[in-house]
UniProtKB/TrEMBL annotation:
PANTHER family linked: OS03G0844900 PROTEIN
Molecular function terms from GO: nucleic acid binding
Residues in S1 motif domain copies: 85-160, 174-248
Record Pfam families: S1
Name the UniProt record assigns to this protein: S1 motif domain-containing protein
Transmembrane annotation, as ranges: none
Cross-referenced SUPFAM superfamilies: Nucleic acid-binding proteins
Renumbered residue ranges of the record's region Disordered: 14-59
InterPro entries: NA-bd_OB-fold, Ribosomal_protein_S1, S1_domain
Positions with biased composition (Low complexity): 14-24, 45-59
Organism: Oryza brachyantha
Length: 370
């Protein structure tokens, strides 16, 4: 869990001093006395010291009581802001290596660096985030409350959540964005999206399968932190606050070009009359025969034939994959492309379904076939 804090305003040491009757004599001159080692835990509020000394409660002043009452009221207020999901404009008091410290009335809370908007870092991707956050001291930023735990004295804000609430509705599936690559992991890369105002407000994920048409075994072979890229939005999940992006879909599938160059198809050729004879069942890609038999069980699909075969120059996937052609069905015939390793096989469906209907039928079949 990310550390968080709501800081305690400075309190007079006199309020915590022992009474004269309980004070002790100083140590003999021959002994060395060292101050206690300070704790590195960040105090959240004045109430964090409540009960630390039995004498402090006895010596509480009306000012202390008023301050404690204010803290309690502010904790209640910040919990209400969290429950209502409001966006707050709060001043930045300080910056440390982990993030920013903001003020909410008498309380102080924390914005961890990972919860800051990418707009700050993307202004100069090569600059350390600690230097970027120092420049924000004295300004105000828009945040939402993500944790308000009075008992544990944890108050955490997120600028990313506020940015999502403000800008997510502007992201449309199919839109193309300029982006800057942020974190890169084995499963994909996070890309910060540039909006029309010139700022990078939101971040999406380019899954490893959407990085390139080539077989990607390590995303770092293709993308590195700070790279500038173009991406297309392929899905927006408002409930989970996620954006799925693709780099691959901005490029033409090299499979189609490869087929046309390796096995040219004349206009008067039928699917089975290419430069190669139709493959036998033994020659089919493993698993393709079972998929085709299942396709024939779908309403609206009356026939399945095999067309041209080819070898690609690049390995896209070792597993059998089925791709839908972007060309609409013509004369009740629709083309699929089966590919595994370097092998490519055209599959022609005779169907009364439209492109969307064929897509759903294929998805159902792939869900049934192991």
């Amino acid at each position: 869990m990310l550390a968080a804090a709501a800081l305690r305003p400075a309190t007079s040491l006199a309020a915590f001093s022992p009474s004269p009757s309980t004070s002790r004599s100083p140590p003999p001159p021959a002994l060395l006395s060292f101050p206690p080692r300070p704790h590195h835990r960040f105090p959240l509020s004045a109430t964090a010291q409540e009960g630390a000394s039995t004498s402090s409660a006895a010596s509480a002043t009306p000012i202390d009581e008023a301050r404690l009452a204010q803290f309690a009221a502010d904790w209640q207020a910040v919990r209400a802001e969290k429950d209502q999901g409001r966006i707050l404009e709060l001043p930045v008091l300080r910056a440390n290596s982990g993030g920013l410290i903001l003020r909410f009335n008498s309380l102080q809370g924390f914005v961890p660096n990972p919860l800051l908007s990418p707009a700050h870092w993307c202004k100069d991707p090569k600059r350390p985030i600690q230097d970027v956050t120092k420049d924000l001291v004295g300004s105000s930023i828009s945040v939402k409350v993500v944790e308000a735990n009075e008992e544990e004295r944890k108050l955490v804000f997120s600028e990313k959540d506020a940015s999502w609430s403000t800008h997510s509705s502007q992201v449309k599936i199919g839109e193309i964005y300029d982006g800057i690559v942020g974190s890169v992991f084995h499963y994909g890369a996070f890309v910060h999206l540039r909006f029309p105002d010139g700022n990078y407000h939101l971040t999406g994920l380019v899954h490893i399968s959407e990085v390139s048409w080539d077989l990607v075994q390590d995303v770092r072979d293709f993308l590195n932190e700070g790279d500038t890229v173009k991406v297309i939005a392929v899905n927006v999940d408002l409930e989970k606050s996620r954006i799925a992006l693709s780099i691959r879909q901005l490029e033409e599938d090299p499979l189609l070009e490869t087929l046309d160059k390796v096995i040219p198809l004349e206009a008067d050729q039928s699917p089975n009359v290419g430069t190669t004879s139709p493959p036998s069942e033994d020659d089919l890609l493993p698993g393709l025969d079972g998929i085709c038999n299942e396709l024939l069980q779908e309403d609206g699909i009356t026939d399945v034939q095999f067309g041209r075969r080819a070898l690609e120059k690049r390995v896209v996937s070792q597993d059998l994959e089925l791709w839908l052609s972007s060309v609409p069905a013509k004369d009740n015939q629709f083309k699929l492309l089966a590919r595994a390793g370097r092998q490519v096989q055209e599959v022609y469906l005779t169907t009364s379904l439209d492109q969307e209907g064929i897509k759903k039928a294929v998805q159902r079949v792939l869900g049934r076939v192991p």
